Amino acid sequence: MLRGKTALVTGSTSGIGWAVAQAFAQQGMNVMLHGLGDPDANEALRARLEREAEVRVKLHSANLAEPAEAERLVIDTASQLGGIDILVNNAGIQFVAAVEEFPPERWTEIQNVVLNASFRATRAAVPEMRRRGWGRILNIASAHGVVASPFKSAYVAAKHAQVGLTKSVALELAETGITCNAICPGYVRTPLVENQIDAQAKVHGLSRERVVRDVILAAQPTKRFIEVEEVAALAVFLCGDMARSITGAAIAMDGGWTAR
Ligand code: NAD
């Protein structure tokens, strides 16, 4: 039932978003890839996905630090791929600092990329989904959408707000055939996190193994990273017909982190 549908996955040139885009394409969906970074490398990803999955794949590089760009991204997706059935608000950034030293411009950037762009993209996509009487909105939030850690005030605030947005939108759209859910992963093995392992190993003078177990995965009871394919499989399930009654949920995929 997902074959031929159109999906926009923000921040899909790397990590979780790339895995979701690949999984969607393997289901026969046409996909708008999106992200910053090296345009040639991104174009190579686009071409590879289109060739391997035999679906239409377009590429966009809207900068979501300017939230109005999220609307342009949705409009361009609809015009280039003939509509929009599925929106995944996945793009995200992190910055770690004590609250009294937190640079206000970094705070604003995180709110824009994580929260304000999700709102603007949702706002732009809903009318088209309503017309179709079907839609799926997935917000890739975080365990930090339901619990906090120190030094991540901007990220935790933005992710909690993204979960709140999810619930409100789900209630508004409950009778329309459109669902809206948040996926709340714990630590997922992505390039972002891999880089943190090396950095922390240096700072603490510990081996990579100790950093993973005692620093990064201290709060994750399973003591192993979630793989991007696990998040992508959940995203595919939430798009399916058997998930039509799941809406307004913040679904934990966190190795038990938020069960404590
Ligand atoms: P990543 O750094 O691998 O990928 C981030 C993507 O977002 C890239 O495609 C990047 O180009 C894009 N992006 C960043 N800033 C942007 C901007 N200003 N405009 C447009 N695009 C921008 O990250 P990831 O680890 O795959 O994380 C993806 C999402 O999952 C984020 O929202 C993150 O908060 C969330 N998340 C990640 C983890 C984790 O452990 N990796 C855990 C919980 C939640």
Describe the protein.
It comes from Horticoccus luteus. Its EC number is 1.1.1.30. Keywords: Oxidoreductase. Belongs to the short-chain dehydrogenases/reductases (SDR) family. InterPro entries: 3-OHbutyrate_DH, NAD(P)-bd_dom_sf, SDR, SDR_fam. The mean pLDDT is 96. The N and C termini lie far apart (38 Å). Strand 4, helix 4 and strand 5 form a beta-alpha-beta unit. The protein has 2 domains: 6-187 and 227-252, NAD(P)-binding Rossmann-like Domain (Rossmann fold, 3-Layer(aba) Sandwich), CATH 3.40.50; 189-225, no CATH class. Strands 3-2-1-4-5-6-7 form a 7-stranded parallel β-sheet, with helices on both faces. The chain is globular. The protein is of the alpha/beta class. Helix content is 48%, strand content 13%.
